[in-house]
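Sequence in, structure out.
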Amino acid sequence: MISRRAAGTAALALLAAPARAQPASPRITRACAGTLYLTIDTGWSREADFIAAAMARHGIRATLFLANEPTYRGDRQIEAGWAPFWRARAAEGHVFGSHTWRHWYFRGDAGAGRVAYGSRRNEGQAVLDAQALCTELTQPTEALRRLVSEATVLPLWRAPGGITSPGLLRMAEACGLHHQGWTSNGFLGDELASEAQPNASLLRQNLARIRDGEVLMMHWGVRSRREPFGLVFEQLIAGLLDRGFCFATLPAGGIR
């Protein structure tokens, strides 16, 4: 009998291997029952190829928020080794926004025109003025453009954890960037502990509660989750398509 641990290890090996996109199954053309906006943040990226192949099979385009985070390969997300991955996503019609460069967390306004910013991994902390904040927010997409000149970059950004403050939002707007969070039913749960929220539960809950206009948020893989959410990602999007939803990339002004 195969142990749960061995099965989990085999699943991780499958997800880490590049997946080949297959043609999508034919679907009956019909009016959309609603529009969903899938957004994917960077992260451990163990499931990245698997998720990308599933989107390609179903013709889904998403908005991808980039930060230069560490990955399962021992490198970082916007380094040269990831250029083929991002180039392929741009060619498929996905669009991009910023998720900050260092993926630290904002800790509130620190006086007029200043915001506190710090790492949850004890990598450092800082107080950013307007210029430093603009650099932090634009650096990911500038790095992407050096790797993939044809990428479509939107004037959108997302704070790590979705944590913002009034002054921070004003400062970012002055940089020409609009903050994009996710909607009340848009958190897909891939950051949660799989012991408490196994994939079967997340799949059932998401299919039941997602409504028209939701901004959905997930990652290319979360290191701490033992049961990779990527294993049920295709079931989720297939189920949402079967409910009549269409998928679209975010507009340049975001969704409020």
